[in-house]
Specification:
Number of domains: 3
Radius of gyration: 30 Å
Distance between the termini: 46 Å
CATH architecture of the largest domain: 3-Layer(aba) Sandwich
CATH topology of the largest domain: Aminopeptidase
Helix content: 10-25%
Number of helices: 12
Structural class: alpha+beta
Largest sheet: 14 strands, mixed
Length: 556
Amino acid sequence: MNPSTSFISHLHVGSGIRNVMDEEESGASTSDATDDEAVSIEPENKQNAEKSASSSTSKPRKKSPKRKPKTPVKRKVRLAHELSLKRRRIIRAAMDDHKAEHKDEWDRSAGVKTHTLMRKRIKPGTMRSFSIPLLETNLGESWNIPVTVINGSRPGPTVTISAGIHGDELTGPSACSHLLSSAMTDPGRSLDPQHVAGIIRILPIINIPGYRNMQRDFPDGRDLNREFPGRAKGSTTSRVAYRVWNDLIVGSDYIVDLHSAAKGRSNMPQVRTYLSDAHSNIIAKAFGIEVILDSKPPRGSLRRVAMENGIGVVTYEGGGADSLDQEAVQVAVNGVLNVLRTLHVIPGNPTRPKFRLLASGSSWLRASEGGLLDMYVEPSSVVQKGDVVAKITDPGTPGLAVDIVAPKDGLLICTATNPFVTAGNPVGHFLPLEKHLDLVLGQCDEESRFIVAGSEEEPVWREEDIDEISLEGEWSGGSVDAEWRTEWLGSNGNNGKEDEAADANELLTKSIKMPITPATPETVEATTTSKKGTKTAKPAAKTTTKATTKPATPKD
């Protein structure tokens, strides 16, 4: 089977079965094609044309009274594999073994029920926000966190959007706040509860003490994302993990966990998942961006525990700690909506990238000396072998400098932002591109920076500041064009006479049945009042402050 051959996961929603599939990859040939071969539809169309030509010569073709419109051919996404052959076979076997799901509660015949979470009841077709404590205590801080649940008007899967597991990572909380804005949840918008099929749980800030103190870990110094599923009588962080897992996560069918890089570095938008897990594979590709890292989740992480319990889960990474990269936030919001659309939780078609870069290996570029780091590149920069990506200098030894050079062609999915380095510190997360450099370069800007799908669109939550001018008064003659039409159709300047209006009606074609309204002698003096709309400062495209990027230059 071709590595790009997809699979079908059936969601029982309504009277029939909804297919959640990677449509752009369906219908691929089952032959063992090379992994960097683009999926094309031209040979298939050519064969169909030859078959139709041969059949037309043997039998006379009957003329149909109406010609059926041609079905539009769906664009297929190219797969750029940087996976080993062994790993591709494992993923292929896992997808072949994946069976269609059948859950009775997703069927419309089961009806929509009131959803209960932490003794809070959410009626069908409604959204409810509340807070829950992370710790059950009578004394001290219990750490209440915000929770929002959207219970759709139709049955479907339960999708949890989690963010803020690390308190200093702001991409996820910002994305969740935009998802919960009126621009998303108002009637007729993307997350209108009346149009939702299933349940959406949104946890914008899980590590509330770390968020308040701008710290990654919990106050006891532990990483929450290494403590799942937690213990009821364990450490502080372990108790929180136990509460989050058992009371907020259990019952989910899919999880999208939003993250940023740790302090001192910044990530380009990317998705991490274990591609041999079929459920996770579905939503990783549904997210709609190019870079998908195939990695086994670390022990104690939410992703690993969820996968072990049969929940499809992906981790999104974008931006850095203690800062807001609006491009990373926008990609996160678009990705969540793409996942919900692919699962048919919300209506609409998901957006797709031009290609997907699947990778299962990377390396870190490390400083060989200590001093001050001058980065020449940014996250998502594409470099070629021999390019200088950074330089290290030391004020104590003027005149000396050390270059950090790209070992081969590749993509920097993460770069350091802290200028202070010592020998051995990582300065860049390097993704080698052995076979698809030209494909990636074709989607770069003038500075060889890769343009992630969905990062250049205008965010839907940003409203333009438009002044509205209200003109008060009444229409002369009773309608907008009353006097103009009467004057045009009348004769001898006798406006307002019924006999002239009747004659004017005869001039109209029978298909027009608009009566002629005679003009009234009185005119109403309209007064204009200017009312300015609420002004909101339009944010810049990117709010992160970055050093000037120098183009990568080949080493002498």
